[in-house]
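lol ok so funny story. i was supposed to be doing the assay writeup but got distracted and ended up predicting the structure for this chain instead. priorities right. anyway since i did it might as well share w the group, maybe its usefull for someone
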Amino acid sequence: MEDRAVPLDAETKVTERPHDHKDELRLWLRLFTCKEVIETEVRRRLRDSFDVTLPRFDLMAQLDRTPKGMTLGELSQRMMVSNGNVTGLVDRLVEQGLINRRPSPKDRRAQIVSLTAQGRKFFRAMARTNGDWIGEIFAELSADDIETLMHLLAKTKASARKAIGNKAIGTKAINNKSFGNGAQR
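and the output, tada:
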């Protein structure tokens, strides 16, 4: 019987011929490195300029979008962190006078948190400055570069969702994933 080359699907190809995915692995590493470089710089600048961590900035960004506030559970879900992590962040921001915490009128077990007037003013100043930093970081990209990159990243995101959707893992986590700067995905 003659040995015929059987076309491989992408999953089998990765398993049986990992050397065939050098470009995809290089792309993954490039995306990850870009994310790490930018996030590390944003973290440093937030700390140096505002004495704020990126998770606190992210939490305040979520609250800025929801003026009436939200429960700790909702915050936890949006930020994709544990309730314990959110509680610790909230405790520190309450101590600083940047957010309020009150019982939910619908559920005595739940607490609603919202930005104080001082917190909203402080967050919006940080957000404006953060926007300037991101603009500076991407200053070498033309409008066409950005448009092309946005298109390719949307295609990359759809490809990842499709691949994950074909597995038992599901897409819930990827659909809600935060990138640490309040940016839309």
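The chain is about 65% helix and 5% strand. The longest strand covers residues 99-103.
back to the writeup now i swear
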